[in-house]
Design goal:
Layout: H1 11-17, E1 39-44, H2 49-66, E2 69-74, H3 80-90, E3 96-100, H4 102-110, H5 116-126, H6 133-138, E4 140-141, E5 144-145, E6 148-160, H7 161-166, H8 175-185, H9 202-212, H10 231-246, H11 255-263, E7 269-273, H12 276-280, H13 300-303, E8 305-308, E9 321-330, H14 336-346, H15 351-356, E10 363-364, H16 375-382, E11 384-385, E12 391-392, H17 399-406, H18 408-411, E13 412-413, H19 425-431, H20 433-443, H21 448-466
Parallel strand pairs: 1-2, 1-3, 9-13
Antiparallel strand pairs: 3-9, 4-5, 6-7, 6-8, 6-9, 6-10, 11-12
């Protein structure tokens, strides 16, 4: 995982996705169920040293219980597409992949690299009713279960409660409230908001999408027609253009610089992922808040921050939450029986350990069991976050913030998948058409209307190639 710790596919990785398009015919044939069923290979994107160590401890319990050995291969998210391409060519795909994002699930499905029968078997054995319904839907294509939903994070708007209260401002839950607060709180030495504008990072597109969904701005309609020039989307382009031109730091803003500006007390709002919460709480030495008040109290900024998980626009029917759901995928040619047992274990006996590696970014998509429906949700609330220091999130954040976080798994929405157009996500993240238009908009080289048209034209080209 990158130093930002946000679950995202970088441009380099996304560009490599296209390399595997024609590889299905070269991929491994299914393994003989009568062959060696005692060892499977698992690739995991949880590749930070502490998480690798914890994953190995969970695996040891699985091996003790089943006798099945697991070869764990930590992989960097940037390298997964290229590694998958090479493995497919050589007939050496892993049996299972873990912690993969929705765009990779959809990309692998278009390349026929997923064992969807195994995924359906796992969900059936664990009980479909024990999963968050919307999470299951994100991993489905019609009546096919592509992968097994694991955990999620959300894109959230973090804001300075103290500054809002001093200025008599309402929480930034709507387009109007965000714009007003950003305008009022932009003054000498302080920006009202900091937003991503890096054209080369999918984080910029994620930030835009998190605002767009609240206004019911969709990437594409069910017919496949691209909708980025719709009135609902134009309102998002207008808002993003205003905020980046008037109320945000100038120059290219990245996943790291946006966080740094908020942590330094230089911005009153930041749009980031829930992975920011342990850092905001002063639990990571390599990403500590640096505001003047934070020098004597590492929790000061967290205690003076509020969190908005769902935003609504003037054209939206209801507030919406952008989030990433990561999944377990059994790959084509896997040892199906052993792989199914492994994923079932990771989603049951080993699930609490797995979530506990980073509870701020691993909200459970399986809430419990048939006999204990809230087991995993309740366990998540008791988990300690952090790296250099460990604390429960509810010891740092207030009750309203915790309630908002708890609601995230049930409210995640995404572009393209609900319209049956999930195949767009791979090339969309590869080419970053929205991110590039956002960058031009922020630099002042284009207008909101022209930015929308440029993005519309680019996505139409992508859509035509995926038909």
């Amino acid at each position: 995982m990158t130093t930002s710790r946000a679950r995202r596919i970088t441009t380099t990785a996304a560009l490599l996705l296209t390399a595997t398009v024609a590889l299905t015919a070269c991929s491994a044939s299914p393994k003989d169920d009568d062959g060696d069923s005692k060892t499977i290979t698992v690739w995991s994107e949880e590749n930070q040293p502490d998480r690798v160590a914890e994953t190995k401890r969970i695996i040891a319990g699985f091996t003790d219980q089943t006798g099945i050995a697991v070869k764990l291969v930590p992989v960097d998210e940037n390298q997964v597409p290229q590694l998958t391409a090479s493995a497919a060519i050589s007939g050496d795909l892993p049996d299972v992949m873990g912690a993969i994002p929705l765009s990779l699930v959809r990309q692998f499905d278009t390349q026929d690299l997923l064992d969807t029968t195994a995924a359906a078997n796992i969900v059936r054995q664990l009980g479909a009713g024990t999963f968050v319904d919307s999470a299951l839907a994100l991993d489905q294509d019609g009546d096919r279960q592509l992968a097994v939903p694991d955990s999620s994070y959300a894109q959230i708007l973090v804001y300075r409660k103290d500054l809002f209260q001093q200025a008599g401002l309402a929480p930034p839950t709507t387009y109007a409230a965000i714009k007003k607060a950003a305008d009022v709180l932009t003054k000498k030495g302080q920006y009202g908001i900091t937003l991503a504008t890096d054209p080369a990072d999918v984080f910029t597109q994620q930030t835009f999408e998190s605002l767009a969904l609240g206004n019911d701005c969709q990437l594409v309609r069910s017919s496949g027609k691209v909708a980025l020039e719709s009135p609902a989307c134009q309102a998002t382009w207008d808002l993003y253009g205003h905020l980046t031109a008037k109320d945000s730091p100038q120059g290219t803003q990245t996943v790291d610089t946006t966080r740094a500006a908020y942590f330094a007390g230089q911005a009153a709002m930041v749009d980031w992922s829930t992975y920011i919460l342990d850092e905001l709480g002063g639990l990571r030495n390599d990403a500590l808040p640096t505001c003047p008040q934070c020098r004597d109290d590492r929790k000061w900024l967290a205690e003076h921050s509020g969190v908005v998980t769902a935003i609504s626009g003037p054209d939206g029917s209801a507030p919406a939450t952008y989030g990433e759901a990561t999944s377990w995928a059994v790959m084509h040619g896997a040892n199906r029986s052993a792989s199914e047992q492994f994923v079932q274990y990771m989603m049951s006996t080993g699930y609490e350990q797995w979530l506990g590696m980073a509870p701020e970014g691993k909200l459970p998509l399986r809430t419990g069991t048939a006999t204990d429906p809230n087991r995993f949700q309740d366990a998540w609330l008791d988990m300690k976050a952090g790296v250099d220091r460990k604390e429960r999130l509810d010891d740092i954040y207030d009750a309203s913030t915790m309630r908002a976080l708890e609601s995230v798994p049930q409210s995640i929405r995404r572009w393209a998948i609900p319209q049956g157009q999930g195949a767009l996500l791979g090339p969309f993240n590869a080419q970053l058409p929205v991110g590039k238009s956002v960058a031009d908009l922020a630099s002042g080289s284009t207008t909101p209307r022209d930015a929308a048209k440029t993005a519309q034209d680019a996505v139409e080209e992508i859509e035509a190639k995926t038909r």
